[in-house]
TrEMBL record, chains A, B:
<dbReference type="GO" id="GO:0004350">
    <property type="term" value="F:glutamate-5-semialdehyde dehydrogenase activity"/>
</dbReference>
<comment type="pathway">
    <text>Amino-acid biosynthesis; L-proline biosynthesis; L-glutamate 5-semialdehyde from L-glutamate: step 2/2.</text>
</comment>
<comment type="similarity">
    <text>Belongs to the gamma-glutamyl phosphate reductase family.</text>
</comment>
<dbReference type="InterPro" id="IPR000965">
    <property type="entry name" value="GPR_dom"/>
</dbReference>
<dbReference type="GO" id="GO:0008652">
    <property type="term" value="P:amino acid biosynthetic process"/>
</dbReference>
<comment type="function">
    <text>Catalyzes the NADPH dependent reduction of L-gamma-glutamyl 5-phosphate into L-glutamate 5-semialdehyde and phosphate. The product spontaneously undergoes cyclization to form 1-pyrroline-5-carboxylate.</text>
</comment>
<dbReference type="InterPro" id="IPR012134">
    <property type="entry name" value="Glu-5-SA_DH"/>
</dbReference>
<keyword id="KW-0641">Proline biosynthesis</keyword>
<keyword id="KW-0560">Oxidoreductase</keyword>
<feature type="domain" description="Aldehyde dehydrogenase">
    <location>
        <begin position="7"/>
        <end position="280"/>
    </location>
</feature>
<dbReference type="InterPro" id="IPR016161">
    <property type="entry name" value="Ald_DH/histidinol_DH"/>
</dbReference>
<dbReference type="InterPro" id="IPR015590">
    <property type="entry name" value="Aldehyde_DH_dom"/>
</dbReference>
<keyword id="KW-0028">Amino-acid biosynthesis</keyword>
<dbReference type="InterPro" id="IPR016162">
    <property type="entry name" value="Ald_DH_N"/>
</dbReference>
<protein>
    <recommendedName>
        <fullName>glutamate-5-semialdehyde dehydrogenase</fullName>
        <ecNumber>1.2.1.41</ecNumber>
    </recommendedName>
</protein>
<dbReference type="InterPro" id="IPR016163">
    <property type="entry name" value="Ald_DH_C"/>
</dbReference>
<keyword id="KW-0521">NADP</keyword>
């Protein structure tokens, strides 16, 4: 099919699905799980071919070894986790049909704002083929149709997974085109122009992938390009908290988007706290790229300067690049700043508005930091690594957004729904606006709040 | 200033304002009202010059007369309404600091999702100069900075209004650059590229204005280009409701985006209901552009065919244009459809996803219509004209959105906020993620819901 036909088929499948009840969606997820189990041999055979081809590319130096790991569906418990993930998503509460505003505008005229699916999602990801299953489950659960594109090195696997999903869908009330896959970059370029049919793009992958999509589509994009997180050690930072929070933020998983890349030091922070933090980081192999004041403090402390890694791991920062780079590695840029407000300004102008943390014993500093740092997550005495949908308790994570509208920070199923207004007149003659207003024969609106747990009659087919 | 400097100054003013308390924002609104009162003579003098210049353009046939009305600040109670609007916005509840998710992740580790401003708004409008005041009030109330551009014909007025606003701001905790105005299309073109500094574009005006902005910016746009609303008369429609709802939807204010442009008739609708609806519309001067079946029914009814306006106001519809045109006039396109599901498909493919209404006595039809019509408003036995922020009870209206993310339908102050996650550790050693998980020494997350009315300590400066 041409991209335009794929997009139209998705929109049609979405529209046709709007009368499908939640229990039927859950049933579809169960059928998909069965179909994957049933087709396990075929899928793993396809995966084997992808892995073999990728292994050759790795040997030839054209692909990285970690990519090979991500591709392989037989590694550790990946297959079982993938299937369990379907059940986990199925068991989450339905994000649709939730009433967030309910008002009686007039006697017998009731308005409800009810959550409902967005429409057609275009999800673009890289090497992990199981993302197909993960996203299909999220889309079906939330009532959105989806078009998926994986990396070219996982083509055979994603095709086999997608075939199993579509065969399962054909036994349900959902159209099999509810979940479609595309394979080429050309198709993606075309789809990114079809804002009439596609409602939201979710890129999951490298900075380059996300940036390129953000630059090339008018369709709203949910995601993040950079994860440039900061930990700020305030003047009143507690030493143990400082060491623990900085270490965890940096080394728990340096390649994650919620790992810290920048350490800010208040000039009034006791020198001994900084040297202890630095010593702990160095003992874990972290390279420190320091501004002049923070470097001078380390160099003047014999217990640090005498460390064997001092010369290799304590370097002068390049101010024009080190404070705007997502290292994704055991590297930390260190900057000294004279006040809380200068720290906040530095973060607002350098961070990617993802997650930033302050270590402080001052209630006032904590409060001002949380209020004035303009990021999706503002933390106090806690590792930036907590910024995650599962850790936040959402049960799943669609992605992490650094955008300012719709959804921000870790996004759960709620990020895949919007709402519509349902207005129902029970009046004997219907309701018309020309009867409202001031003057003879006109009446005023009542605007009486209704219990927000009342699902409107119009949604009883959910 | 160059556009880049305007945008940067806005972002700086926004960031600096995040510690400003709500009562100071309300106070700023009061100071703006005073400044406008104080500068009334200057402002009306500027407005007089704009009106005189526009009158010459109208006389020369280069501007439309209604534009002249919209420009004139001295007409009826426009000035007083403008000032009253500031007080009305000031009196609304603060949309910020609302907790929508609160969970104790672990003992002493509390997560709150708290509403907060989006950032910098770029608002582009056309001839009504009082929109400057209206938007400035909404922006200040909601904590967003704003850059405003009005039509060139209102330049002197908007400049005078803006000067008064900025002089008032200079006596408050807010930076005077919190509200800025620009005047040229060239500046707008440049600003639309500055997605680093501008977070949301709100165009208020013609279809052409909105479409052009949607096509030319990567910054999220909130608004609607078309308002193509439909009323569907189901087979079971009640005659009185049908006449009242169709008439009100069409003639209450034909130039509004929530006026109906399309009437759909179920083929099983009693002929007598359709001829009565048509007669009522014709008696109000509405032109009907009918498909063949609906036209045949009217032509075959002597009481309609004998009406003096039958030949001039009952026309054959042009199927390639009349069902996709926002007439904004006393014209209604009429289409016959054999079923509820065909009506829904017709609406989903022809309407602008704004507001659509069904007239029916069938609970099942009402329910399926509301669920499957993919529009911001789905109404039952009520006029499409109810789709309005004031009628919905929001106290104000930022605009009406036909987008599928963030805000949909009439948008109140809530549409100008997003949220951030505030995570605070009260633990004696801070909180780090490496202590959570499975295995020796690891613990599980608690994820205990917290009362959603608890404002986190980090937000006590609100």
């Amino acid at each position: 099919m041409e991209p335009i036909d794929i997009a139209k088929a998705s929109k049609e499948a979405f529209e046709a699905s709007q009368a499908v009840r939640h229990n039927e969606r859950v049933d579809a997820l169960s059928k998909i799980k069965d179909a994957l189990r049933h087709n396990k041999a075929t899928i793993l055979e396809a995966n084997k071919l992808d892995v073999q081809a990728a292994a050759e590319e790795v040997n030839a130096g054209r692909l990285s070894a970690p990519l090979l790991k991500r591709l392989d569906l037989t590694r550790s418990d990946k297959w079982d986790s993938m299937l369990q993930g379907i059940s986990d998503v199925a068991a989450l509460p339905d994000p649709n049909g939730k009433v967030s505003y309910a008002s009686e505008l007039d006697d017998g005229l009731r308005l409800h704002r009810v959550s409902c699916p967005i429409g057609v999602l275009l999800v673009i990801f890289e090497s992990r083929p199981e993302v197909v299953v993960n996203i299909a489950a999220l889309a079906i659960k939330s009532g959105n149709a989806a078009i998926l594109k994986g990396g070219k090195e996982s083509l055979k696997t994603t095709t086999a997974l997608s075939d199993a999903i579509r065969s399962a869908l054909s036994q349900t009330s959902l159209d099999k085109n509810y979940i479609q896959t595309v394979h080429s970059r050309g198709e993606i370029s075309s789809l990114l122009e079809l804002d009439k049919y596609i409602d939201l793009v979710i890129p999951r992958g490298s900075n380059a992938l996300v940036s390129s999509i953000q630059q090339n589509s008018r369709i709203p994009v949910m995601g993040h390009a950079d994860g440039l997180c900061t930990v700020f050690l305030d003047a009143t930072a507690n030493k143990e908290k400082a060491i623990r929070v900085v270490l965890d933020s940096k080394i728990d998983y340096p390649a994650a988007c919620n790992a810290a890349e920048i350490l800010l030091l208040h000039t009034d922070l006791p020198k001994e706290i900084w040297t202890s933090v630095a010593t702990a980081l160095l003992s874990h192999g972290v390279q420190l790229r320091c501004d002049a004041p923070s470097l001078a403090l380390l160099a003047s402390d014999p217990s640090v300067a005498s460390l064997p890694t001092f010369s290799t791991h304590v370097l002068e920062a390049n101010p024009s690049s080190d404070f705007t780079t997502e290292f994704l590695d055991t590297i930390l840029a260190v900057h000294t700043t004279p006040s809380l407000s200068s720290a906040v300004s530095f973060i607002n102008s350098h961070s990617s508005h993802h997650t930033d943390s302050i270590v402080t014993e001052s209630e006032s500093s904590a409060s001002i930091f949380c209020r004035t740092v303009d990021s999706a997550g503002t933390f106090v005495n806690a590792s930036t690594r907590f910024a995650d949908g599962f850790r936040y308790g959402f049960g799943t994570e669609v992605g992490i957004s650094t955008g300012r509208i719709h959804a921000r920070g870790p996004v759960g199923l709620e990020g895949l729904v919007i709402y519509k207004y349902v207005l129902r007149s029970e009046g004997s003659a219907g309701h018309i606006v020309s009867e409202f207003g001031v003057g003879e024969g006109k009446r005023a609106f009542k605007h009486a709040p209704l219990g927000s747990d009342s699902i409107p009659a119009g949604f009883d087919i959910v």
